[in-house]
Amino acid sequence: MLSDIAVASDRATFRVPELLRGIPDATYAAVLPAHVGLAVARDLLLSARRFDAAEAQRIGVISRLVPHEELRDAALQAVREILQTPPMARMHVKRMLNERYGLIDYQTMFWALAESPEPREGMLAFMEKRAPSWVPEEFA
What we know:
This protein is mainly alpha-helical. It has helices at about 25-35, 40-45, 55-60, 70-80, 85-100, 105-115, 120-125; strands spanning about 5-10, 15, 50, 65. The protein is about 50% helix and about 5% strand. The relative contact order is 0.19.
């Protein structure tokens, strides 16, 4: 999501899994709405559902979707195109583009990692291949 040009295979799948592990990820929460809009960001962040490459392109998470067999060539082509632009001008354009993200609240994320039992339980559940304790039994 933070790459300059995201080239993905038509076989790729995506997900924002941190909340499944009890981690309120500050980067996704700050950046994803700028890419996909607030309603879609809420859906992806709060549900942590998987989505395929076609949806990722449609909502703006990736910019180029190619057949899996063409992935390497397409990525190299993107690099060739970028390298045709002058480095200093490119740097300023990237700075201006990145200003749209605003504040990334790492304080909240780091507080949760240090103080909340949820990230520990989430990671332990992941490693033990079970549902975390906060998931009601009928939805586990």
